[in-house]
Protein 1
Amino acid sequence: MPEYRSIAFLGLGHMGTPMAANLVKAGHRVAGFDVVPAARDAARAAGIPVSGSPREAVAGADVVLTMFPSGEHVLAAYQGIDGEPGLLAAAAPGTVFLDCSTINVAEAREAAALTGAAGHTFVDAPVSGGVVGAGAGTLTFMVGAPAAGFADILPLLEVMGKRVVHCGDHGAGQAAKICNNLILGVSMIAVSEAFVLGEELGLSHQALFDVASAASGQCWALTTNCPVPGPVPGSPANRDYLPGFAGSLMAKDLNLAVNALRSTGVAGRLGPLAAEIYDTFTAEGGASRDFSAIITDIRARSEQERGAAPAHHDGSPE
Ligand code: NAD
């Protein structure tokens, strides 16, 4: 007999809504909330009971799950802003605070300390697998918590994911996530550069996909989130790069990775370059496009550079 839990689910965005819907389908009691009214409406339409306020959602919950954009959002919601009491004060003693957002390792540890001081427990459990994985209940969870906290929350995570890895104590889940997304950001840029180069060399998208997806270029950025329309029907490229995983979130994650590289003294070079590329992409209109739209940026820059290239003596471009 499964143990049904009462979950306040805060942050009903691209990821939160399908994750919360899976908890509802599995029979758990869910009280959702988002600060954006349109997100609340979309969540209701997806069958998620939505509360009138965060306090109302948290009343009676034994798990408070947050799926927010960043660590600042998490810490502000826990502690409260503008004199308003936060979630830590609103929750019953002994509540599990389960944060699935991608945030800094230090912020996760701060959240754990604040939570403990308020008489609750904390688990950091960021995810990988994107919106498709959230909908299908096939996310990978990277968990930072003491062993007892991990065992307690495991059945709930197994509803939303197919793989749950206990990475260590508080903050270890975020450490794993930041390392993973360093790989993802760099690999999406590499896959996109390869497609643009293939275009110029006369290769069809399908031919390059068929080769690389079965060869050593194989990676998630290619086979699940393919940046060109066609080869992977579910990828955001087929719907004008509607996220998915927004460019602003990739820029955020890469900057978390850069901070971690700096603070640990690791001499990474591609991470900082990828962060710079996504910062520019975000500043120039890519913030709310899927991060795979970086390919459109590479094409545009190629055009610009060709236009700026000095001509040969015979008049042909350099
Ligand atoms: P999103 O912006 O679509 O959703 C976040 C939601 O949180 C928004 O609807 C926002 O209104 C809400 N919110 C912010 N502050 C709130 C508060 N105090 N109370 C209630 N609601 C609040 O973002 P997303 O794509 O769902 O991503 C969420 C997190 O998951 C991010 O940290 C992201 O890095 C991570 N992530 C995203 C993906 C992806 O593919 N989108 C994949 C893995 C991890």
Protein 2
Amino acid sequence: MRPTLLDKLFADATTLPGIGPKLGKILGEFTGDKIIDLLFHLPSNLIDRQYRPSLTEVEDGRIATFEVEVMKHEAPRRRNLPYRILCGNETGYLSLVFFHARGDWLGKAMPEGAKRMVSGRVERFRDQLQIVHPDHMLPQAEFDKLPIVEPVYPLTAGLSAKVLMKAIQAALPQVPELPEWQEEEWLKKQGWSDWRSATQAAHRPENMAALEPTHLARARLAYDELLAHQLVLALVRRDRKKQQGRAYQSAEALQKRLRELLPFPLTGSQESAIADIEMDMSAPMRMLRLLQGDVGSGKTVVAVMAMLQAVANGAQAALMAPTEILARQHAETLGPWLDELGISWQLMTARNKGKLRKESLDALASGDVQIAIGTHALFQGDVAFADLGLAVVDEQHRFGVQQRMALSTKGNGVDVLVMTATPIPRTLTLTAYGDMDVSRMPDKPPGRKPVDTRVISMDRYDDVAQGLGNALQDGARVYWVCPLVSESELVDLAAAEDRANALRAIYGDKVGLVHGQMKAADKDAVMARFASGEISILVATTVIEVGVNVPEATVMVIEHAERFGLAQLHQLRGRVGRGLDKSSCVLLYRGPLGETAKARLGIMRETEDGFKIAEEDLRLRGAGEVLGTRQSGLPAFRLADLEAHADLLPAVHDDVKLLLERDPLLKSPRGEALRVLLYLFRRDEAIRFLQSG
Ligand code: ADP
Ligand code: MG
């Protein structure tokens, strides 16, 4: 149960002045609909009202403040005209302009002859100075109430700056004092204040410097968020280490037979990953291991070796892919090996329906099937295994901490192996995957031909399009990727259709199109025609469909390459260069390119090492981008900025480690306070791990 002292913070935002049900809904989608969500929404700018020029000297377009006398009201003569109030002082005249104004209200608020302080953005209209809808119009008794600086918050459609600012400022005095969850010494050393003061200070910036992420108040709040996150990962990890898992015997005989079936020797990276996994699976604890290796580094074989160990011990194993196509491809690769080894397996997809599905489910439940291959849906609903021993999750793009937690608490002692082709820089691994053990696979299978990568301006589109002709004559197959450019999928689809049509004008029915809005069966059909060579140019809108393996594909063209993350570009490029022929990758960009964009595309030309690309990407773009939610499954931080606060990460890791050594059950006063912290950041799922002791 959430501690009652947080009740105020978790009250609905609609309890704040100016926030009705409609705004509450908008906030719900934008920031979250509780007061705490607004407090986590920090200002991005500020308005400085210190500029108080004379009316003769004021600069156009600036926010300015004047003391004036109200001279004359001019009600509009036609409906569409604004209401004007003419004001002035000894230095000149100023019109206040109101659209859709309520004249009676303005008449009362601004009586002729009264003194007022007005503040807002000044502009010149037909040689007259005016302010449209002033931000403030204060009577003389309240002159000292004019805020000198006002925070400005990021906004969304339907939410006005003033309303949001007022609501947040109204929430600030109600912020409760919370027990301190940071170490006294550490706070002193950093010069940080308590949580309440820091929250209030972050929303009352006094100058631009106070908006910097490294400002004392913001740094403290960032530390809190990172601390909550890291504490959860550590608790999950510890809980798992305590859980009884099964100690599997090693599966030497089966693994040896698989090695004999493979037409290649394993790489050093594969061997050491296999050894890591074998050690985990042989120990009486649950495994939760991340296998990080580039596209094409050969993770699949490693996964099979792990599954063999489960199977050799009489348990079942499941391999889960993010899409149907990938699941099928796994089945095509593994199926023959498993058949040869006499292991029963089955492909489970959402498309197995009715009787077929029932039969599959029965086979899993009875244990007739030893290895199941399918999409993540494999784990949902009515699916029951006789005795699941190992779950392998391929490509965890959409597989975040929450899902990992859910998976590892499912079943009794199921070992989990997560495979990702998104290399994360070493410095960020703990932050992203602190709950897991990690094996990295830096080597690639030998004999892979480097992909010739070129960065080419869209101005040369015609050359590129015509140039494909030569490649096609040599039997090449070409991916042409059009990225998500606009917010609307329909617009993107139109762009891809245009591209497909333009290429059809040259290459006729050799061109196919696959996009995210097609039905799964239609997508598969197009992919199959591409794989068989019936079509040789495949235009794709989104990256998801390109996870497939078509060894004959040797050309990858990526349009608007400057809009992709490096990790994505790297993954896309990994789809070619898988066969025997020389491959190439064309990164088409629309100029002009900024320095960073240029450097980023340059890296793609220089290296194919995913780990190196990830490090460089981190250097150029910052951690927030590298660890974007989409790519890593890491929750988006609201207060912490992994780039600006990178130097806090080691401190957070040490803090958590030491803390759990000293106070493993969070029973000390600091431990109790940390529980509050977890609730504050809605990371309280992990608290249940403390009850079990
Ligand atoms: P990943 O899943 O890591 O992207 P895969 O497991 O699909 O990579 O392997 C890519 C290709 O490399 C497959 O065709 C696979 O058979 C092959 N391969 C895997 N390991 C080796 C190796 N040690 N030597 C040569 N080829 C390998
Ligand atoms: Mg793979």
